[in-house]
Amino acid sequence: MGKVYLVGAGPGDPGLMTLKGKGLLECADVVVYDALVSPAILAMIAPQAEKINAGKRRGRHSMMQEETTQLLIAKAQEHAIVVRLKGGDPFVFGRGGEEMEELVNAGVAVEVVPGITSGIAAPAYAGIPLTHRLYGSSVTFVTGHEAAGKYRPSVNWQAIAHGSETIVIYMGIHNLAYIVEQLALAGLSKQTPIALVRWGTRPEQEELIGELGTIVEQVEKTGFGAPAIVVIGAVVNMHKKLSGCRPLSG
Questions:
Q1: What tens digit of pLDDT does each residue of 103-135 get?
Q2: How far is CA 59 from the centre of its chain?
Q3: Which of 9, 36, 40, 101 could join 14 in a cystine, given CB atoms 3.0 to 4.6 angstroms apart?
C-alpha cells in the first residue's frame, strides 16, 4: 500500500507552489489533478507519472467525487506515491477534508500539504490587503456555492454582513445577485466597495471594481465570469493605489 498526498497547488502562479508540493510532483507515480490547476503547475509533474484529470467545473464534471476517492484508493494499492493535486489549499473549500476522511476509513496512508489559497492570493495580486489598520481588522471567508443536503440549509448572510469588516467569497459569481441582495437586506450599505478578481495570480488576471448596489449590473454589462474571488469591504479602496505593484506572474 502506497501513500496519498493531498497537495495544494496554490492559486495558479507557479512561484507560489510550495517547495514540498513541487518535490512531490517531481517524484510522484500518479497525479490526480483538479480543473483549476494551472498549466504551469502541471508542467512540474514528472514525465513518467500517470496524469489523471478529475476536474470539476460548474456543470462539467470529469469525475464524480466518489469516483475520485475510489480511484485514489485503487492507485495507492498499486503505487508508492499518489498525489491528489488540488487548486489553492485542500482544506479551504477544496473537499480535502472529505477525501482525507474517506482515505483514512479505507486504511490508506494520507498526508496533507497545504497550499496558498486564492482568497488570500488573488486580492493580494490585485493590490487589496485583506486587513488594514485604518479599514479592516477582521476577515470572513465564505463559500458562495453550497452543497445540496449539507449540514445546514444556507449561509447566514445576516451574520456575515455584520461579522467582520472584510468579506471574501469563494465561488460567488454565479450566485452574486442573491448574495448582494441578502447582504443589502442585512443592512450592508449599497455603497460598500466590492472587487471581483478573476484568474487571480495568473498572467490573465483581471479585476472588476464597483459598489454593492451596482456590481451585478456591471457583471452583466461586461460579461465578467468565473472563476473569481469576491472581496467586499473598505479595503477594496486600496486597489486604486496599490494595484500597480502587482507581482509578475509565472
A1: 999 999 999 999 999 999 999 999 999 999 999
A2: 17
A3: 40
Collapsing DSSP to helix, strand or coil, 191 comes out as: coil
Q: Which of 17, 44, 100, 171 is catalytic?
A: 171
CA distance to 43, 48, 185, 226, per residue, from 212 (Å)? 39, 49, 12, 18
Contact at 8 Å (CB) between 91 and 204? Answer: no
Can 89 be counted among the known catalytic residues? no
What pLDDT digit, counting tens, does each position of 199-236 carry? 999 999 999 999 999 999 999 999 999 999 999 999 99
64 in catalytic set? no
CA separation for the pair 234, 49 (Å, rounded)? 46
Identify the active-site residue in 17, 34, 75, 86.
34
Catalytic (active site) residue 13: no
Domains of the chain: 3-113 (3.40.1010.10), 118-245 (3.30.950.10)
Q: Is 220 exposed, middle or buried (0-12, 13-18, 19+ CB in 10 A)?
A: exposed
pLDDT at residue 66, as a whole number? 83
